[in-house]
Amino acid sequence: MITEASSTIAIFGSFAFIAYRTLLGTITLGDRVMYYMAFQRAQGFLQEMLRGLSGLYEDTLLVSDFYEFLDVKADIVEPPHPKPVPRSLQSGIVLDHVSFKYPTGSRPVLDEISLSIRPGEHITLVGENGSGKTTLVKLLCRLYDPNDGRITLDGVDLREFKTTALRHQISVVFQDYAQYQLTARENIWLGNIEHSPDHEQIITAALRRRRGDTPFARRL
């Protein structure tokens, strides 16, 4: 809005100047046409320049927010002596009377939730919007810790694992996912960036999902 207002003021001011000079008889009709064309081109240039300055200001605000985000201290406390995360579950995942409320929330999202998931089971959580389905997954990833109760993995509380080691064993696609402007190969590679983007395991993972060798997987 400021950009358009500034451009409009400049253009009308220029037209007023040309009209004034015309009334005084100091410029000819040809001069008027030349000035008009010049001001039209200047208008476009001025609009682009002001739009660029406005965008630069907005980007500066975003960068400021980004640095503020980097300065935020994590609420998750790492254990002093972390236990190894099991690579293959034996007894499964157990939620034992888990309750959780977001720091800015007025009521618990999860209240005394108990659930057992055995190894190899496929679980579907069904519920209304806001019933806590996504929150439960966030607790499993230890993006938050329960206010009450505990979540165990093969009998060990998630808070006893190193957070990075735990999350390394979990794959999550949230409902507000981000679509990266990368190739299919690079998107698969993001699942384990410890390997190189050309690692053979990327093809193996693609073939496993496609259930067999296909030209598509080989062209990744």
Automatic annotation (TrEMBL):
According to the UniProt record, one GO cellular component term is: plasma membrane
Recorded hits in Gene3D superfamilies, A to Z, give:
ABC transporter type 1, transmembrane domain, P-loop containing nucleotide triphosphate hydrolases
Q: Does the keyword Membrane apply?
A: yes
Q: Where is the AAA+ ATPase domain?
A: 119-220
Q: Which InterPro entries match?
A: AAA+_ATPase, ABC1_TM_sf, ABC_transporter-like_ATP-bd, P-loop_NTPase, Type_1_exporter
Q: Where in the cell is it found?
A: Cell membrane
Which Gene Ontology MF annotations are present?
ATP binding; ATP hydrolysis activity; ATPase-coupled lipid transmembrane transporter activity
Q: Do you know which SMART domains this protein is assigned to? A: AAA (SM00382)
Q: Which UniProt keywords apply?
A: ATP-binding, Membrane, Nucleotide-binding, Transmembrane, Transmembrane helix
Q: How does it sit in the membrane?
A: Multi-pass membrane protein
Asked whether the UniProt record includes Transmembrane among its keywords, one would answer: yes
**Record-linked Pfam families:** ABC_tran
Protein name as it appears in the record: ABC transporter, ATP-binding/permease protein
The source organism is: Candidatus Thiomargarita nelsonii
